[in-house]
Amino acid sequence: MKSRQFYVEIQRDKVLKTLSNIYPQLARFNPPEIVLSNRLTKCAGYNIQEQNLIHLGNKFFQNNSLEMFAVILPHEIIHQVDYNLFGYSDKRCGHGSNWRMLMLQYGLPANPYHEMEL
Ligand SMILES: [Zn+2]
Fold it and tell me: Which terminus has fewer CB within 10 Å in the chain: N or C?
């Protein structure tokens, strides 16, 4: 059986491919590194844009696997893509107008927050 890390990276590459169809210049950027962290228990994921790095809470996959792959991972990748395309967000939290536009173009509602039980 392949590891969770393997499937997360497959999904990352799919999300980036979808976005690259709209923004071909994304091909110039390396895909963000994904770290599955056992220490995240409050938020399901976060992106460090300057480091091209995404942390996902490994424990959230147990009860919310579908949402982690279909929503949280794209949400965090879109933070990175927002930075790659447009630089720093106009909103401090990172859910500015460009982030919301990218979410909608990707096909997700532009909801900044998610309720998930561990
Ligand atoms: Zn966010």
Answer: N
Ligand 1 center from residue 38 Cα (angstroms): 19
Residue 110 C-alpha to ligand 1 middle, in angstroms?
Answer: 10
Torsional sign, CA 91, 94, 99, 103: negative
CA–centroid distance, 1 to ligand 1, in Å, is 31
Contact yes or no for 53/47 (Cβ under 8 A)? yes
pLDDT in tens, 66-83: 999 999 999 999 999 999
User: 56 in helix, strand or coil?
Assistant: strand
- The answer as to whether 116 is a domain residue is no
pTM, rounded to two decimals: 0.94
In a domain, 112, yes or no: no
Residue 84 domain boundaries: 4-106
How many domains are there within the chain?
1
Calculate how far, in angstroms, residue 80's C-alpha sits from the geometric centre of ligand 1.
10
